[in-house]
Amino acid sequence: MIDPDGYRPNVGIILLNPHGRVFWARRVTRDGWQFPQGGMRTDETPIEAMYRELEEETGLRPRHVDVLGATPGWLRYRLPQRLVRQRQRPVCIGQKQVWFLLRMLGEDADVRLDESADPEFDQWRWVDFWYPADHVVTFKRRVYQQALDHLAPVAALIAPLAPRSRDWTLGSLACAGPG
What we know:
Nucleoside Triphosphate Pyrophosphohydrolase, alpha+beta, five-stranded mixed β-sheet
């Protein structure tokens, strides 16, 4: 499903643990890391798509999370020209996303990247709240920043967030999951 402007409706998921860190996963067969996200079906609301994508990509179910908030509207990013499939109709030039902030209620062991027949991720870890805005693939950075900025006040009510910094080091990563 592509809208008249060429954007695919999508949901993004920021999963927060009790320590104020967020779920960060590596895409299968790629070196790219990102938040869980995925396209909406024509018969789904954003919240329905979020729960479906959460289960497909992480194995987590509604009982494992609590929805804390969402962006009030669509956040958009354009795909780099090399990723736009010009022969596909309609042409998709990017994604428009509603972002959800979830609190992890379950245990790390509840995360099952192999739940799907076609897994999206092969590794995951907990990282500082702001880390993804500087480490996701370049064309998604503005949307990640917007989503994190919007949802940070809600996240800060649940857990202390690390101060915002552009000076990230490998020391800011803390492995809590497989990989």
